[in-house]
Amino acid sequence: MSAKTLDAPLIAELVRLALAEDIGAGDITATLIPVEQEASGRVITREACVLAGRELATEVFRQVDPRIRLDWRAEDGHALAAGAELLRFAGPARGLLTAERTALNFLQTLSGTATATAAYVARLAGTGCRLLDTRKTVPGLRLAQKYAVACGGGHNHRLGLYDAFLIKENHIAAAGGIAAAVTQARAIAPGKPVEVEVENFAELDQALGAGADIVMLDNFSHADMAQAVSHTAGRAKLEASGNVELDTIRAVAETGVDFISVGALTKHVRAIDLSMRFD
């Protein structure tokens, strides 16, 4: 599964919850502005970024005041230079002021994820290796962050606990071993991908023997990853995981693994610096 798009009901619910926590019983500061006053302006980025979250921001303005008009100047997934204009807006000043922070929160957070992802993807150019995200996401924003990863050129690992098996150390212990766990997985949900996390070559052989679709090499050295690729010889896809950083991801990819998962894409979120300015 993937989160290349966000459906309208999810967008509406995320925005509803975000506005409820911000507005509460009412935006008292906005009442300083005459109700009939109109305003226009723009949103810019103060730093280079990859845009993500446009539809969420649009829904924020719509829910606050549907009379607000937006003219977007960039699409999600577009790379923007510092100082670039994301959109122009016009409409009731009160509504614009009330919507400002929530709209920017979505944009700056998701653009941060997309921008970080694009930086990692750039390091993989020409290797054939795919960058994956993880479930280490902000609670409530799982699908939105995974959508942002896709905007940055990355790929989604499983969306949750429901769309693929990932059999890790504690699952293996509780299920009675790798072979038993894989066998049970095939019986419980035929057709669902089965991935097994391994920590050494003995476990790799067990996972391959059990017929795992993907084997996650947990904290293998680069030399051991390369050896695992040769040893596996295409019998399963291999995913590298654990302590992969921007400076090391290229070397990991060059070992020949099929996937690299990086929790930092969604866990270590640094929001993009955006500014909303009235004319």
Description:
It is a single chain. The protein is elongated, with a radius of gyration of 22 Å. Helix 2 (54-64) runs antiparallel to helix 3 (93-123) and helix 5 packs across helix 6 (178-188). By secondary structure, it is an alpha/beta fold. The chain has helices at 8-23, 54-64, 93-123, 142-151, 169-175, 178-188, 201-210, 222-232, 249-253, 264-267, and strands at 38-45, 49-50, 69-72, 79-80, 85-92, 130-132, 165-167, 194-198, 214-218, 237-241, 259-261, 274-278.
Strand content: 15-25%
Q: Give the CA-CA distance, first to last residue.
A: 43 Å
Share of helical residues: 40-55%
- What is the molecular shape? elongated
Rg from Cα: 22 Å
Largest sheet: 6 strands, parallel
**Please, how many helices?**
10
